[in-house]
Amino acid sequence: MSKILITGGAGFIGSHLCDYLVNQGNQVVCLDNFFTGAKENIQGLLNKPNFKLVEHDITQPYDDGQVKEIYNLACPASPIHYIKDPIETIRTNVVGTANMLEYARKYQTKILQASTSEVYGDPQVHPQAEDYWGNVNPIGPRSCYDEGKRCAETLCYDYQKKYQINVKIARIFNTYGPRMQFNDGRALPNFIKQALLNEPVTIAGDGQQTRSVMYIDDLIAGLVSMMEAQDCFGPLNFGNPAEEITMLNLAKKIIELCQSKSQIAFYPKPQDDPEKRRPDISRARKVLDWEPKVILEEGLKKTIEDFKKRLGLN
C-alpha cells in the first residue's frame, strides 16, 4: 500500500483522483482548504480506512511524513473563483507549489504539478504544442491564474535542476464530468444547469470560440500514467483534440441532450478569453501511449445525469 498526498483533493479533479487511487488500494491523504472544494465530493471515502482528509491551506507548510507521491492540484481553476480572490490564487500557485516542492525535496518524493492550458493564454498558434511559449497578458484579470501557473512550472523546473527531484508537469485542457460545481462559471456546467432548468443558455461573445473538452476519466488515466512513468518531466498536454467544438454548437448539443426548452442568449465576451483551444497530444501519445477514449456524447450524458441527481430532477 502506497501513501499518496493529493492537494486540492476535494475538488472536481482531485476527488475523482482520490476515488481512483483509494480503490487501487493506496493510502490517500487529501488536503483541501475548501475554497472551491466540497466535502460532498469525497463523502463516499470518509469512512474508508485508507483515506484521510486534512483541512489545510498549502500556502502554509505541511508535513505528514514520507509519502510515495504528491499530486499538487490545489488551486481555483475557474475565472469566477480566481478573479474573486486573485492574490490568494497566485499565492496558492506560487507559495503553495513551493511548499509542496520543499516537501518533495525533503523526502525525495515524486511530485506531479497540475498545470493548465491557460499557460498558452490566447494562443497565436493552433493547435498548441508544449514547445509553444504562449500569449499571456501579465496584468489582466486572468493573470493571477495564467501567470501563477506559468511561475509554478518555472519553480518545478528549477527544483528539478537544483535538487534532482522527480517532478512532472501536466498541462490540463478543458475537462468535464460529474461533480463540477453549479456555480463554476465555466461554459459547460453553466450550459447543463441552465438547460436542465429551462433557463436561457448564456454564451459569451458570438459563440464561435472553441474549446477541446475531455471527460474526467480520461484525464485521471493520463495523470496516473504520467506519475508512474520513469524520467517524464514533461510538460505534457492532456486534452481531447478530437472534441474541439464551438461554444454555440456545444450549447445546442447540451440543449438537445437535456431535452430542454431553453433558448440561447449572448453576453459580452470577457477580457482575454481565448478564441481557440486545442491540444497537440503527440508527446503524451508517444511517451505514455495515452489518448482520450470517451466520446463527447457519452461523457455529456453521464455529466447531465449527475447534474439531474444533484438538482433533484430525477
**Strands of the largest sheet, in order across it?**
3-2-1-4-5-6-11
| H/E element sequence | EHEEEHHEHEEHEEEHEEHEHH
Tell me the total number of β-strands: 13
For the CA atoms, what is the radius of gyration? 19 Å
What is the CATH topology assignment of the domain at 3-175 and 216-241 and 279-293? Answer: Rossmann fold
State the CATH superfamily name of the domain at 3-175 and 216-241 and 279-293: NAD(P)-binding Rossmann-like Domain
> How would you name the oligomeric state of the polypeptide chains in this document?
single chain
Largest sheet: 7 strands, parallel
Q: In percent, how helical is the residue content?
A: 25-40%
The count of helical stretches stands at: 9
Mean pLDDT: 95
What class would the helix/strand composition place it in?
alpha/beta
CATH architecture of the domain at 3-175 and 216-241 and 279-293: 3-Layer(aba) Sandwich
Separation of termini?
Answer: 39 Å
Strand content: 15-25%
Q: Ranges with pLDDT <50 over ≥5 residues?
A: none
Q: What global shape is seen? A: globular
